[in-house]
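assembly run, all chains below
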Amino acid sequence: MSREPLRFALPARMLHWLMAALILAMLLIGAGMISTTTERYPHLLAWHRPIGLAILVLALIRLLVRLTHRPPPLPTDLPPLQVAAAKGSHYLLYAMMIAMPLIGWAMQSAGGYPVTIWKGFTLMPILPHDIVVYGFLRLAHGLLAYAFFLLILGHIGAALFHALVRRDGVFESMTG
Amino acid sequence: MAAPIKIVPRLAVISALLAALALIFAWVGGWLTPARISGAAVADVLQAANGKVFPGYRRAHAKGVCVAGHFDANGAGVALSRASVFARGSVPVIGRASTGGGNPMAPDGRNVFHALGLRFALPGGEEWRMAIDHTPIFVVSNPIDFVELQNASIPDPATGKPDPARIAAFVGSHPETAAFLDYMKTAPLPSSFANGPYYSINTFRFIDAKGTSRMVRWQFEPEAPFAGLDKTTLDKEPADFLFDELLARMKRGPVRWHLIVMVANPGDRTDNATIRWTGPHRQIDVGTLVLDRASTEEAGNCRDYNYDPLILPRGVAASDDPLLPARSAAYSASFRRRAIEGPKTDAITVDHRKENAL
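ok done. output:
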């Protein structure tokens, strides 16, 4: 029997912390840009698209890393409900990381907008122009962003619970 | 085991950290600063000033028709901007002619903005969108004043009309708004969408191939000779006379405007759309806008675009005019709302159907 790893693989840890910063920044940029009519609106919007594309690319790489590297096992004494919550929330986190940028790209396509990553670099549309489809995707993008933020709060809370209360090495498997 | 005593403060630390994060998110999102004006807040006040929501229509400039054609650049604009649209050649354009106001069924005979939304399709998926008006100046200089003016214009539930005292109070404390209203009263209103000029309203920045930046405004000067409407008989005109005139005119042939770019002189205000640039300026005719097709929104392909003035190509950028980001944010809020409501049939199509049924 092969020995179980104690930590996540180095690429997994690097991707985790890089994406943690990007995703938190992205949620704040998104919430901030729709809150204002000052010049912060176009400036934040100009950052929102390239960071979104970066998150999509990194998330796909991360999915590959996750499929090719075995993560450390959860502690054997973890109650079944917490095991289910851990597994379920990680599926959801991966789904969000991939779905949110795709929904953003799709909704801008359906809205008939140029998907401008930066001036002079425009992505091709991935949906035909349809304002009603835009309307629903835009709504989903906003609602899922709040859900994603809550999910991340739960993730951070659980990580700190492992670090400070259970002290079972789960937190260190990502930081160490 | 001493654990139970220690767990409580540790859980408190975790909770405090999560609460702090949630608080930062709430602050960034504007929930802790209700006075911050969002694009949605502008859409809200427009709806209130309209007296009701017209689902599926734009919150402003609700009535319009589609136009299409192309822009022929003569190459002169290259001196000011590296935008590919200025290199000698032609790019396709679609657009929407509209009248000001939030009621999509309003008659055309009103002393309001005549406007044009335009979408230039540049090579490589780049776009230039603009929303231009027949007046060289705007009614307010910033979004705070815009919201205040719309607030003052909300109809009184008792009379169904805005309270004149509130509007007078706003105009009294805003000489630039008084000047705009005076302009609307005295300047002739074009008798056609095709024979009047259209102005950029705001200042923009052009960047040339060397990276030199210049503040500019622009206007589309019509080839058709100008004629003004008789403002005393405006309300006697047929409901769709302006839009029907444009539809009929374009059946006869194309309509042309020259795009004249004006470069700021030192001292010109770039951050205030209520102040005209007067006196001699460097002006360059950079090409001709040719519109040769017009149709109702229902039949055309213009309604479901957002003519956001900050969708700009390389070589064109925003100025420091605070109205620009506000227009961009507010147009997007209006677009989001009408998208989810689903587009509705335009007034001109409705009226044509009624006429055909008779």
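The first helix of chain A runs from residue 10 to 33.

Chain A touches chain B through 41 residues (CB under 8 Å).

not gonna interpret more than that til we talk
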